[in-house]
Amino acid sequence: MLLLKPFSRALPALLAASTLLLVPACNRPVEEEPVIQVEAAAAVTVNGDPIYVSEVELEAVARGLISPGDTFGPGDENYDLVLDQLIDQKLMAQEALNRRLDKGAAAERRLEVARERILGNLLVESLVASEVNEDSIEAMYKEQVALQQEDDEVAIAHILVETEEEARDLHQQIQDGATFESLVVSNSLDTTTRMENGDLGYVAPNNMADPFPVVIANTGVGEVSDPFLSADGWHLLKVKDRRTSPPKTRAEMRPEIVTFLTLNQVSKILRRLRTEAQIEKGQKTTNIVPDSALSLESEGDLLKEQTPSPFAPARFPDLPVVKGVRAATGSRGFYAARGLMRDDVFLFAFDEGTHCAGVYTVSRTASADVLWCREALEAGGGTARALIANSGNSNAFTGPKGVLKNEATLKALTETLGVDKATCFLAATGVIGEPLPDPNYVGAFVPDLAGKLSEPDWEAAARAFMTTDTFPKGAGFGIEIDGTEVNFAGIAKGSGMIAPNMATMLSYVFTDAAIAPDLLQDLLEDIVDETFNSITVDGDTSTSDTLMVFATGASGMVPITSADDPRFDAFATALHTLCLDLAHLIVKDGEGASKFVTVTVKGAVSRLSAKIMACEIANSPLIKTAMAAGDANWGRVVMAVGKSLEPIQMDELSIWFDDVLVAKNGARAPDYSEAAASAVFAQPEFTICVDAGVGDQSHTVWTCDLTHGYVDINGAYRT
C-alpha cells in the first residue's frame, strides 16, 4: 500500500537485461573484496568426493551470511547448516551422474549455460573493480545529498475506503465539523494505520506513488484533501506537518550506490560487447513480437525466434460447435512491414438475442477499444451482435486518432452487418502509442471478413490475436443443463504484462446457453476474481485487458433469469471451470516461463488478506528467479509474507513446498531437508503453501518463474 519508489529519484533506471548474476554482497567496493580462492583443505568428503572449506565459505557469501574475504568455520553460526546443504547437493549431483542425467544435448546445454553464467560473473568482478571505488562512491554520494536536500518530508495521515461515495460522505462529515481522527477507526480499510489515526508518519512526497505527490502538494498543513483514487482505493489525506528532510549518511546510502555503480558498469560492458560482437538472429514466420503496423521501417529486424512454452499442448483442443456464433479471420497486414502475412484480425458475428457481459482493465491508460466496450456494454444493455479484434497494434494512448479508428470500424460493422452500433465490441493488442495512419485501416477490412463468416475455426481465431504468445490458447466442452445440451468454447491470448488487476490479456468465452445479461454480468465479476484476477506472470497491468462472455441462447433452453434457478449453479460451475482453464494457459505461456506454480495462503483473516499475501509471493522477483534456478529458498517466502503488511501470527506461520514442510511455527521445520525442498523446486509444476496462523480464510493464485527468456523477449519488444 502506498508504494514507495526505490532509491532516490535522481538515480536513473537501468535496463538490467543482463544474463549475468551480480557479485554478491555489494555493500563494499569490489576492490576491497578479496576473491576467495579455492584451496585444498577439505571440510568433508562425500563418497570420496571432497567439499572444500573454501566452497563452504563461498556458499556462505552467496547467502549473505558473511562478507567476501571473511573466514567461516566449524565454530561459526550456521556453518553446519551450510555444510549439510552442500552435502545434500553433492549427493544429489552424484546420484544424477549415476543415472547419466548429464548426458544428452539438453543436459549438456544447461551445464554449459551454468558455466557461462559463472564466467560472466568472474568477468564482471574483474571489470568493475576499477570503477566501483571510494572516489566514485563519494562523488555519487555528494550528488545524491545535493538532490536529497531539495525534498521536504511531510507528516500525513489517511483514510482508505472502497468507493467514491464513501469517501465523499466522510469528506462532507469533516466539512460539517467531524474530526478526521474520529472517522479513521470505524471507516479506514488500511489495517496497518487504522489504530494509529491513519498516521503514515513523515514521508518524502517524491518517493510516493501517484497521485500522492500531487495531492500532498495541493494540501496545506492541517487541511484534508478532497477524495482521490489510487491503486488501493479511495482516500482522504490530511497533511499534519512539513519539515526539511535530513540527508542520508554516506554509510546509509553506500549499499545502494555500490549496487547502482556496479549495474552501470555491467550495462556499459554489455553495450560495448554487443557493439563489437557479430550477433545473427534467426527468423521465423510465426509467433512474431508485436509492433505497430505501417511504421516499422526504422526498427530493424523484429522477427524473433520463440521457443514454444514447455507447457504448450501437443495440439489445439477440439472445441464444440456453439450455436448462434459465426467467425472469420484474415490478414490485414499489421505484420507486412516485417515481410510476413499472417492472420491478424478476427470477426465474430452473433445471432439476434445474444447477451453478453464483460470486465475490463482498471488501468488509467485504458485503450480506446476498452473505453468503447465499457460504453457499449452499458448502452446496449448487455446485447451483442459483433466482435472484432486485431493484433499488432493496441490502439492505446493514441488520442483522437484512436477514437477515429474506432468510429470508422464501428461504421463498417453497422453498415456491413446491419446491426446497432451499441451491440458491436472492439479489441486490439500490440504496441502502445502507435496510431494507425488510416483511421479506416481495420474498418476497410470488415466487408472482406463478413463475406467469409462461417462456423468458427477456433484455432485460427486464437492465432489471429496472438502477440508474444508461443501457442494458441483454447478450451471448451459440452454439458447438459436440465436436459438441454449446452456448449462452451473459449479462446485467450496473453504471455507478458500479466498481473491480477482484471488480468492483462484478451479472452472471449462463447456459449449457446441462455441467461439474462445482468445475471451474467454479476456472475462474471465474481468468477474473474478467482480466475483471471488470480494469475500473474510479471506484475504488470496492460491497457487492453478484456474478458467477455457471449451467450447466444441458441441451444433452445429457457433463459436463466435468477440465481435461485436450479440450473444456475451448473452454468456457473461450467463458466468458472472454463475461465480457470484459460487463465492457467496464460500463465503456462508466461514469457520465458519454465515453471508453473500454485501459491496458496490459508489461515488468513480474510480472503482479501490471503490474496494480497499470495500475490506478494507470486510477484516477487527474488522468489520467481529462485523458482527458475530450482533454489528452494523459503526465506524469500517469509520475506514476501512480511512485506505484505497483512495480519499474521509469526509464531504460528508455516510454509510447505508441495507436501514438504520447510517452516513450522515461525521457524525452520525441525526435520527440514534441503534436498527434499530442492526436489520440489526442480519440478516443472509445484505448490507453495503458507499458513498465516490468524484465521480460516484462504486464496490461491497461479504464477510462473522469471527466466532470462523474459528479458530476451521484452528487451527486444520494439528494437
Structure commentary:
This protein is α+β, with helices and mostly antiparallel strands. The protein folds into four domains: 30-99, no CATH class; 150-244, Roll (Chitinase A, domain 3), CATH 3.10.50.40; 325-588, L-amino peptidase D-ALA esterase/amidase (4-Layer Sandwich); 596-715, Ubiquitin-like (UB roll), CATH 3.10.20. Helices cover 34% and strands 18% of the residues. It has 19 helices and 21 strands. The chain has helices spanning 53-62, 79-98, 105-128, 134-148, 164-175, 180-187, 212-217, 250-276, 368-379, 399-417, 446-450, 458-464, 517-530, 568-588, 607-619, 621-629, 634-643, 674-681, 708-715; strands at residues 42-46, 49-52, 152-161, 199-203, 228-229, 234-244, 325-330, 345-350, 355-360, 386-391, 424-429, 473-481, 484-493, 506-511, 546-551, 596-604, 654-657, 660-664, 667-668, 685-691, 697-704. The strands form five sheets. It has a six-stranded mixed beta sheet with strand order 19-18-17-20-16-21. It has a five-stranded mixed beta sheet with strand order 9-15-14-13-12, sandwiched between helices. Helix 4 packs across helix 8 (250-276), helix 13 (517-530) crosses helix 14 (568-588) and helix 15 (607-619) crosses helix 17 (634-643).
